[in-house]
Amino acid sequence: MAPVPPGIRFLASFNRDQWYRAFTFSLTFLLYTSFHLSRKPISIVKSELHKNCSALMDLSTTSSSQLPGFTDTDCSWKPFDKSNYKQLLGAMDYSFLCAYAVGMYLSGIIGERLPIRLYLSVGMLMSGLFTCLFGLGYVYNIHSLSFYIFVQVANGLVQTTGWPSVVTCIGNWFGKGRRGLIMGIWNSHTSVGNILGSLIAGYWVSSNWGLSFIVPGVIIAVMGVVCFLFLIERKRFFIFTLRSSSLTGFRCKDCDINLLAQLYHSYKQGNKCQSWDTELLLPQEDGGSVCVPVQQLVVVKSESEPSAISFMGALRIPGVIEFSLCLLFAKLVSYTFLFWLPLYITKAAHLDAKKAGDLSTLFDVGGIVGGILAGVISDKLGKRATTCAVMLLLAAPTLYGFSMISEFGLGPTIGMLVVCGGLVNGPYALITTAVSADLGTHKSLKGNSRALSTVTAIIDGTGSVGAAIGPLLAGVLSSRGWDQVFYMLMAADFLALLLLLRLVAKELTSANVVKPRSGSTSVEMKEH
């Protein structure tokens, strides 16, 4: 008999539960990647909506007249051809983010009471629709500001279905052990989505910016269908107890799954109907043989599920308010970069829209590294707030350095983009993932897992208020010079740091590292 290939042996070493965990991890990663992929095009297209007309003076009148939305005297897309274009672009960002912030508070409460798979699938399909609508403004030559504002508001509302849903799913499948590392890696979907969104939007931005929205819209809609077909919301625990008896070792050599089902149903008692998942989770051995513990099969299921937590009940969880307000300022910085970095690079480095969009992806590359490092360090130390505070303390002077170095060419700019991305997105990633999951499963909840979506929505919803304010302020301040924007970002980082000082002091003065039990290496976070 030929030996089993090593790759097959490796795959067979994982049990069914591990495969489901890996599948849920990968699927939710891809689902939220598509969310950020669909949000990124607006930052890439901004420099195309209002162009530097002096760069196009060499174009003939004939060629200019062939561009939809342009006249002989301008080169920008109306209504963004006026001197107040920065305020108009900022208003579009603000409309999306304000709707997102308001909707997020409701989304977590609604999502806690509806099937997550259906809720998330509908949200993704609607997000695809509104993202495509923005791109159709180019196709149908639409120049109404109210149209673009309406699309942004609607898209902001439906996109709130994403974050509470995916965090709840991943929290249901993964416990607290190494949660920072796992969620740090998983949260890189934010940066991966931004990178892919920049590359896709940048490919068409100069030739047909409508496709910069339509293609990402189609992608998130397709992923919504995938979500509906494959997402497993939570881990179902089926414990099969086999007592020591003469039946131990019983084998059914030629049984298939249908025969197994018949055996199982023949020994059910009363009218207690069990899920078909029970049959599917019974282990198979010896090339299809199935262990059938006849008459000793016990299915243990929860008799009743706890009720969902209220909004005020979630606010009373220790640490929720502090981390929510901290995220308000941390997300203000992150989303200002998300929406304005390509335009800043275009103006500061004098690059075209495509090159600026490609270069801006380095900020997200740094964000991936920063998110993972923040998770690993916080797992090792057991100090989430302290890890965030140190990164925020380092981020403020780094932002100032970036504003100075960006004038000295591409080399220094590339290095500082990566560093800034890591320090800015590290705390943001840690708070929205591991910290939210920790607080959503806090010991004060006494095992009630139906608080996770609400807590996540409160924290991210508060952060989204900052995400709405940041780009709006950037649009106003940039008219006075980009230095003013960076001063605002540095001030926001310091405010985020100040809001964590109480929790940092508590972590540093209390014995928050629980001595692990014999054979265990896990570190738990004490109550904030």
Q: Could you describe the 3D structure shown?
A:
InterPro entries: MFS, MFS_dom, MFS_trans_sf, SLC37A1_2, Sugar_P_transporter. This protein is mainly alpha-helical and 528 residues long. It has one domain (13-49, 83-235, 310-510): Up-down Bundle (Growth Hormone, Chain: A). The chain contains 21 helices and 3 strands. The chain has a 3-stranded antiparallel sheet, with no helix packed on it. The longest helix is centred in the C-terminal third of the chain and has 31 residues, at 410-440. Mean pLDDT is 77; it is low at 55-67, 69-73, 237-303 and 512-528.
CATH topology: Growth Hormone, Chain: A
Number of beta strands: 3
Radius of gyration: 26 Å
What is the H level of CATH, i.e. the homologous superfamily? MFS general substrate transporter like domains
State the secondary-structure class. Answer: mainly alpha
Roughly what is the average pLDDT, rounded to an integer?
77
Unreliable sequence segments: 55-67, 69-73, 237-303, 512-528
How does the major sheet shape up? Answer: 3 strands, antiparallel
Specify the number of helices. 21
**SSE ordering:** HHHHHHHHHHHEHHEEHHHHHHHH
Widest β-sheet, arrangement of strands:
1-3-2
Write the layout of secondary structure elements.
Layout: H1 6-12, H2 16-39, H3 41-49, H4 61-65, H5 85-111, H6 116-139, H7 145-158, H8 162-173, H9 179-186, H10 189-204, H11 211-230, E1 251-252, H12 257-266, H13 277-280, E2 284-285, E3 289-291, H14 311-315, H15 320-349, H16 353-381, H17 384-405, H18 410-440, H19 452-477, H20 482-499, H21 501-509
Organism: Esox lucius (Northern pike)
Family: Belongs to the major facilitator superfamily. Organophosphate:Pi antiporter (OPA) (TC 2.A.1.4) family.
Keywords: Membrane, Sugar transport, Transmembrane, Transmembrane helix, Transport
